[in-house]
Design a protein that fits this description.
The chain has 479 residues and is α+β, with helices and mostly antiparallel strands. It has helices at 33-47, 51-63, 74-90, 97-112, 122-133, 172-175, 197-204, 259-272, 291-299, 346-356, 423-437, and strands at residues 118-120, 135-138, 141-146, 161-167, 183-187, 190-191, 211-218, 221-228, 230-233, 237-242, 247-252, 278-282, 308-312, 318-320, 335-339, 361-364, 372-378, 384-393, 409-410, 477-478.
Length: 479
């Protein structure tokens, strides 16, 4: 079963009809190995060097017909089958054929040298799709380890606390009374001291319907709070009004299945209820997500020009048009997008659409530079994989892969910036207000030359319609 490119539910990913069986490892010849090997050894002992030809001929016959391998690829795959059969029949240790198959598939993807194409075990495959969908089983909080000044720290101790930084609306944590600022000192009576946040998160997450007891400190008082876990939809979008009501600020943490709808609602409220005059969109440290979410979000600002282009390995660039109904397509509403080195993938698509169509300005630092789109496919009984199947290009048809987008206004936050200050956001608001004061002014160009144009397509297989972006990082959420 294959989902459409606009589907927002990836969990039912099935094998693509274009790559049904994966590598040719499903059907393996079992018989004949031991007898052929014994014959080969005997001939070597009997007639010396002349037997090298004979033994080679015997092994060649062994791999000469391998089910699942195309007739015109027998010579190409013969060394693989020779090695596989020799391992399974002659290796003196324990052989797990399933692990051999997984290792062989993993080797295919490793040989590509592409960090975004990867074989995934069944557990990794499910976790990846869960991360993309934005759904988790847990309690619905975000946490961080902080010192007394609010700066990040590693291991929970007397000077490093595990703090709830956000409680997701409608979550079990909210229903149980947990609040931002609560300090978690124990999970199911096990102290958090001496542990990292990576150690603690798995103990708080868990299956729907199960209960976890958090011991928290609030205003110097400790209390136990039981929370029943449930399926949580991650909140990737939040907004607020700034600059005396003139600027609407929206932060997107990831392009999950619900982010485009949430973004539309937040943007609509800012413009039509709060009556802000300019928008600052914060895509810093946003690792990306769904392509269709990026298309929908970019369409909120651009009405009638290509948002970006997609190019398969053998095709020409195809423009991706806006979806009608954008809330902020009026050019009198200035748009500023905050970016940095963690702005990647789908968030770069939105950034490029805004900048490339002269709809707004980028403020911050150079973006990550991920110009490929991945496809997820399941391998029944062997996990699945993600494979880079398309390039995406800016409205100017530039491929930014490995280069990134250069902001119109470059701002590097100071290394010693206090936790309660944000130089990039401050400058972004200034740029938005300047655009309001001078609506006819032109945007400053990026400060460095643009990347080189996209290279010509290279031969490769076609791709299916189910195209997803891959997240490059994960936030510390207790789903």
């Amino acid at each position: 079963m294959t989902d459409s490119a606009t589907s927002e539910q990836p969990a039912s990913a099935g094998p693509s009809s274009l790559t049904d069986d994966g590598p040719p490892v499903a059907e393996i010849r079992r018989g004949g190995v031991r007898a052929s090997t014994i014959v080969a050894i005997f001939l070597v002992a009997a007639i010396g060097g002349g037997a090298l030809f004979v033994s080679g001929f015997a092994l060649g016959r062994l791999a000469g017909s391998t089910p699942g391998t195309a007739a015109d690829q027998q010579d190409l795959f013969r060394p693989f089958w020779d090695a596989y059969n020799d391992i399974t029949n002659n290796y003196v240790g324990q052989v797990d054929q399933h692990l051999l198959v997984e290792g062989a598939i993993g080797g295919l993807f490793s040989a590509l040298g592409d960090p975004f194409s990867q074989y995934l075990t069944e557990e990794e495959y499910r976790a990846s799709l869960s991360g993309l969908s934005g759904e988790f089983e847990g309690i619905g909080v975000e946490m961080a380890t902080q010192d007394a000044q609010g700066n990040g720290c590693e291991t929970v101790s007397d000077t490093c606390q595990l703090v709830i930084t956000r409680v997701i609306r409608g979550s079990p944590a909210l229903a149980a009374g947990l609040q931002a600022g609560d300090v978690i000192v124990a999970v199911d009576s096990n102290s958090t001291t001496g542990k990292t946040i990576g150690d603690i998160v798995p103990t708080i997450r868990g299956p729907k319907g199960s209960t976890v007891v958090l011991t928290i400190e609030r205003n110097g008082t400790a209390q136990d709070v039981p929370v029943t876990r449930d399926v949580i939809q991650r909140e990737d979008v939040r907004s607020e009004v700034m600059a005396d009501g003139k600027v609407g600020y929206i932060k997107i943490d990831g392009f999950s299945s619900g982010s485009a709808g949430d973004f539309h609602n937040e943007l609509d409220a800012l413009i039509n209820q709060d009556h802000v005059q300019a928008i600052v969109l914060d895509l810093r440290d946003d690792p990306g997500g769904y392509v269709d979410a990026a298309q929908k979000i970019a369409s909120e600002f651009i009405a009638d020009e290509p948002l970006y282009y997609e190019q398969t390995a053998t095709g020409q660039p195809v423009p991706q048009q806006p979806i009608p109904g954008g809330v902020a397509t009026d050019s009198s509403i200035p748009v500023v997008v905050l970016v940095n080195g963690g702005t990647a993938s789908a968030s770069e698509i939105v950034s490029a659409a805004v900048q490339g169509n002269n709809r707004g300005q980028l403020v911050g630092s150079q973006t990550y530079g991920k110009g490929t789109i991945q496809e997820f496919k399941e391998l029944p009984g062997a996990g699945g994989y993600r494979l880079s199947v398309r390039k995406w290009l800016t409205p100017e048809q530039i491929w930014i892969h490995g280069v990134g987008l250069t902001p119109n206004v470059v701002v590097e936050p100071p290394a010693d910036q206090p936790a309660d200050q944000d130089a990039v956001l401050d400058r972004g608001i200034e740029v938005a207000l300047e655009a309001l004061a001078n609506p006819s002014s032109t945007f400053p160009p990026p400060v460095t030359p643009a990347p080189t144009p996209v290279p010509s397509p290279t031969p490769a297989a076609d791709v299916s319609d189910w195209v997803l972006q891959v997240s490059l990082a994960s936030n510390v959420r207790v789903g």
